Amino acid sequence: MRKMLRNMNLMKKLIVLLILFVVIPILVLDLVVAKKLESITEEQVGNALLQLVRGSHLTLDRESSDFEEKTEKIMISQEIQQLVSIPSSSEYERFEIFKTLDKYLSNYSTNAIRYSMFFSDTDKQYSFVPNSDILNNGIFYATDLNALSWYKSVSQAKGKGVLRVIDKFGYNPNNVKTVAYLRQLNSIYNGETVIGYLLVSGIETPLQQDFSPFDKYADGQVMLLDQENTVLATNTDKFQIGSTVPAAADKVEGVYKLKEAGVEYMHVIHTSEATNTKLLMRVPVQSIIIDHISVQRLVDWIMFIYFLILFLASIYFIQSILKPISRLARITNSYHPGRPLAISMHSESKNEIVLLSNHFIRMTDRLNQTIYDQYELELKHKEIELSILHTQINPHLLYNTLESVYWHTFMEGATESAEMIKDLSLIMRIGLSKGKLLIPVMEEMNHAEAYVRLQLFRYEYAFQVHWDIEEEAKKYLVPKVILQPIIENAILHGIKHMSQDGELWITVRVRNGLVMISVEDNGYRQADIEMLNGILKGKENNRGFGIINVQKRIQLHFGSSYGLRYSHREDQGVRALIEIPAVLDENEWKQPPA
Known about the structure:
Elements: H1 2-7, H2 10-75, H3 78-81, H4 91-106, E1 114-120, E2 139-142, H5 151-156, E3 162-167, E4 177-186, E5 194-201, H6 204-209, E6 221-225, E7 231-234, E8 254-260, E9 263-272, E10 277-284, H7 285-334, H8 352-389, H9 396-411, H10 415-432, E11 438-440, H11 441-458, E12 463-469, E13 477-479, H12 483-495, E14 502-511, E15 514-521, H13 529-536, H14 545-558, E16 563-568, E17 574-581
Parallel strand pairs: 1-2, 12-14
Antiparallel strand pairs: 1-5, 3-4, 4-5, 6-7, 6-10, 8-9, 9-10, 11-13, 14-15, 15-17, 16-17
Helix pairs in contact: 2-7, 7-8, 8-14, 9-10, 10-11
């Protein structure tokens, strides 16, 4: 056997292996499965039918709920409830009551569904009204309600609706049965007072219309049963409405097999606690098995032929399809956006897969170029935006002029004014910073100190300032002029009007690779921290331009995970915290994407 296989070509080897490991196993498996298919089919179909019966029963329950809602509406209507208090002293008044009720009730009746009401008339005051042996529906008065077949069960329900099989009203010599929904009408003002009894007949028609999901089962028999296993609705002539189905007695919800007259039936039963009914479906087991096995075997043969053809076709196209596809898969798996592929293109070929592979390589080249172009555009966009944000800084001319004014004022002996001019000049010089966007923390602190000295002079030293700057933090870079707007807010909105009690704390620390700059005040006013942080997130328009400017410049340099946020101070006042990465070189944060 081994020698024979060795002398065969690849195609013959594939055919032999196909017969040994595909065809024969499938045939053996099919024979084994066929023996067990009947029991498996019965179980699967039984479960499927149980789900179908359960869903259909829920639909039937909704039909009953609709009748319950309609009868509830009739019971609480003014026309019905006023019967408790309206006197009926004259025959004319009694006739008017009858006519009003009959007109009101006729609005609900249709050709199939008929609404009727029964009232007690022991004194025979409504003897002029026809009885139910004459009319199909309407208003009826009975001298003895106990004589009605359904009265006892309805009165015991105490206002709940019940389903019962009764004789059809009107001329009915053949005692044709109908299904009725019956309900006792109670006074809404006094629940113990019984007004009458509402009867909706002919409801088997809409109930049987809900049996349509079972139409695809030609041999299926579907019946809706009450607690006594009396048929309320059915789709078969074998069981009439009002007849009893003994096979359903003492059976709870589930799937059963029962033999009747030599024929085995599958019984599927679902019970409903809401309506106290059962939905029974009977299907001959033989019809289920034959249909399912025929379809299953047809599918098996189709799949067998399909896999055989697919296998033969795969052998023919293996060289022209599988290998190029495998190469394309390796290319796509090794590609990362922004990195060139280390695979060259194939020579031109008419093979569509090869062409696709070549086009993919060209596409990656174009995509990489687009990524580089996009990155350069983003860098230029950030630089332009940063330049625009810094256009508020005064030019060199004003700085040079302030230097001249300082020396002139100092020579005239106005020392205090000269110092103010010097501080303002320092603010301008650090703000310009020779065009730099990032400056050391030390320079930013000099700028902030100069601004604070000007404010102290302006407000006649009405507040105190505490500086706490770590020596290590002074060398790291920060965006210039980020403290002045925050200190200005702390003075104007926090400690401006506190006389000598106002205090300002400016702290700089380096923790876990972050430069943390804190500006705190002990302002007595309760600040709206949520609003301040909302301004920083862009949720408040046309407000807080200064702190928005600071936030944008920090995030444009270092990313959206850094920036400014506000919180309440432990004692009183507001705390503004800036967090930026500890950076010594501005180019550290301009790396191209990986």
